[in-house]
């Protein structure tokens, strides 16, 4: 076999440079470092043709991708924020109502029949006197446009109208219903 003559390194500028030192932190740890050098004319500033299509798709998205995007009401962040707001409002309203309930401790009014009068034989008219007691120490009660029914053994005997009335706290009231 023929021996090859040693190359003349005067043509290659990279051969004239001394070798680069190893990168910091890797010296003496048994890692081999390889340095690859490319000539400037092989460094691409424009992507090669096989990658150009991918780059163009990132630069100019098509209208199909724009249409696929969901509206702002579908985004998870928006829905999560909306759910947190709704839960917060419901919690605040619940805490407020519970506080008012425990502070005022509302009770139902008490009704007592004090007098009953019946007039007539065939078409009877009933006159009933009621005593209404408001047991609430901090709340008044308002009665508006109510209907009254007189029942006898679960059969409606008469009907009437309850008068409009504002009853203050701890105040008994006498009513006459006809």
In summary, what is this structure?
This protein is of the alpha+beta class and about 180 residues long.
Characterise this structure.
This protein has 178 residues and is an alpha+beta fold. It contains 3 helices and 7 strands; from the N terminus they run αααβββββββ. It has a 3-stranded antiparallel beta sheet with strand order 1-2-7, with no helix packed on it. Strands 3-6 form a two-stranded antiparallel sheet. It is rod-shaped and about 135 Å long. The model has no long low-confidence stretch (mean pLDDT 77).
Topology:
Blueprint: H1 49-59, H2 63-68, H3 76-104, E1 110-119, E2 125-133, E3 141-143, E4 146-152, E5 155-162, E6 165-167, E7 173-177
Antiparallel strand pairs: 1-2, 2-7, 3-6, 4-5
Helix content: 25-40%
The profile of the biggest β sheet is: 3 strands, antiparallel
Query: Shape from CA axes?
Result: rod-shaped
State the total count of DSSP E strands: 7
In N-to-C order, the SSE pattern is: HHHEEEEEEE
Overall radius of gyration: 47 Å
**Alpha-carbon distance between the two ends:** 137 Å
Largest sheet strand order: 1-2-7
Beta strand %: 25-35%
Q: In terms of per-residue confidence, which ranges show pLDDT below 50 for 5 or more consecutive residues?
A: none
| Rounded average pLDDT | 77
